[in-house]
Design brief:
The complex is a heterotrimer of chains A (236), B (206) and C (222). In chain A, 82% of the residues lie in helices and 0% in strands. Chain A is an all-alpha fold and 236 residues long. Chain A has one domain. The longest helix of chain A has 40 residues. The model of chain A has no long low-confidence stretch (mean pLDDT 87). In chain B, the strands form two sheets. Chain B has a five-stranded parallel sheet, sandwiched between helices. A four-stranded antiparallel sheet of chain B has the order 2-1-4-5. Helix content of chain B is 31%, strand content 28%. Chain B is α/β, with parallel strands linked by helices. Chain C has one domain. The longest helix of chain C is centred in the middle third of the chain and has 30 residues. The two termini of chain C are 29 Å apart. Classes of the chains: A mainly alpha (236), B alpha/beta (206), C mainly alpha (222). Chains in contact: A-B, A-C, B-C.
Amino acid sequence: MQLLFRYANPHAFMRLSGALLPFTAAATILLIAIGLYLGFTVPPDYQQGMTVTMMFVHVPAATMAELAYGVIAVASFFSLVWRHPLSDVAARAAAPYGALFTALGLITGSLWGRPMWGTWWQWDGRLTSFLLLLFVYLGYMALWNAIEDETRAARAAAILGLVGAVNIPIIKFSVDWWTTLHQGESIISGKLAPVFLWPLLVMMAGYAFLFVTLWMIAIRTEILSRKARTLMLGGP
Amino acid sequence: MVVGRMITSLTAEKLACARGDRILFEGLSFRVEAGQALAVEGANGAGKTSLLRLIAGFLSPREGRLLLKTPEGESSDSDERAQAIGWLGHHDGLKPQLTVGEQLKSFAQLYRSTRDTDAVLEELGLARQKDFPCRFLSAGQRRRLALARLLVSGRPLWLLDEPFAALDKDGQALVARLMALHCGQGGLVIAATHEPLGLSNASIRL
Amino acid sequence: MSAFRALLGRDLRLAARSGGGAALALGFFALVATLVPLGIGPDVKILARIAGGILWVAAVLAGLLSLDRLFQGDFEDGSLDVIALSPLSLESVALAKILAHWFSTGLPLTLISPLLAILFNLPPGPTLVLFISLLIGTPSVSAVGAIGASLTLSLKRGGLILPLIILPLLTPAVIFGAGSVAALMDGMQPGGGLILLAAFAAAACLLSPFAAAAAVRLNLGG
């Protein structure tokens, strides 16, 4: 915890993230390139044919969408308990990318489902959950933007972030219950053949590095703009 | 029982208060003892209201601390301090739809006060308006009702934000009399004000 | 306890005397229930099928109407400062406000729901399930809503952002509530949905006073 706090200092964070950024950016490009290559050269699935390729874009996006909310939840907790300004910035910076991955998951899921279902949208359990997750993200970002005073906005968003963290699993559970009630069927289930596992894991890692890279850039931008504003206002 | 508890003194030690990036005041120290009144003066935006909100525990100080001494001991806990505070804010905190009597009665119950609300209304010259909804009251009458609520609270430490605002000469004299009476009974008064309190009080300038 | 009752009584009286009370919520609820058949057509089979869902959605939306003023009125006129310094904890204050909101919206809506179910040709069994689900489920609307209301209490246009914040969080209530009605219509047992709904409402009522109190505390510092 002590170590964590040392790097949670904005100056230390600027130095550390500045040193890491080139590597994470390179890793992102490399991993996604390999992942895409592997993904397009897999043998066609016996059930889904070549549409299985969509899985390599969809599943990692969906995973990152949830992970990004996990980041917000943890940062919110830190912000409320230790009142750490960097955790506010970190939570805020993660939200748009979380929403982006959620939207990406929805779009790719819909494209994937199109040949299976014959429609662009199906009230499939996973897709429905992600649609709701997107709204949770939008509400969270709206609250950040609505409150003028920055410290107050940060604390309010942190409270909402934690409430969401408790509620999102319940929402998921209720949507699953709803699909069993209405006998929906998910294409995105069942066992994964090992040939598909490797490209999927590589893509996951690529997406994770993409998120970390974008997230760090957003945090750095926010820290710098706060610094600039303080200088202009002549504050401490 | 917390209500009616006596306070020996309230001490501020090197308080600093900031809103956002702006520091309102720092290194502020003062001490108010039982029976004393303190006037907080200063230009608009100097932080008079913020100081009152800080004492009430709504804001937390950036630095320094507040120490409340009672015959039982001392505490710097803002939740304990809150139970000693009678609050008269900048806004009256009254509902236009509720009658004068209802309003005072519900606050008396909320504060678990045993004061006779009718007697307090009488004292403040609002007895005739008892069954009127507050929307029919003048600004001065609303202020008097807010003062009535302060009396009913029975709290020893009064925090008053511009207690003379919206009051005519009679009303201002009434406020001065109530403050003197409160101090005479061993209470404390801290008032943010533009005008002299009309008491033998100390004052600080922000 | 008497302090709690005093605050609850004050808020109920306020809700009854200012336009935002039960009458407004009831009117809205009934109007939505009237408009939907006009939009969909008078096919009684379809209407009976969607009644549970429509009435549940309408109940949630009607509950939202007066929610933005839950803390805001007291915040703007300074009452909240006086209330915050009372012997009641802010958690109890939030609970009193949640209860007052439920008594003036959720409960009256529940009571007239059987009447509206007739408009949708809902059979007696599902109507009873709808009634029970609203009775145990609408407290969660007030409870989760109180979190949103306390977070946005200092915002001039808080009423606009409030639905965006809390509607996604309320989906479980709609799903379990309307789902238990639909289950019975399809010849299944409604009990499972009702139990899940009760659990959700209980958790919401237990946890939300803490979140709301934290949000109020933060706004008092403003």
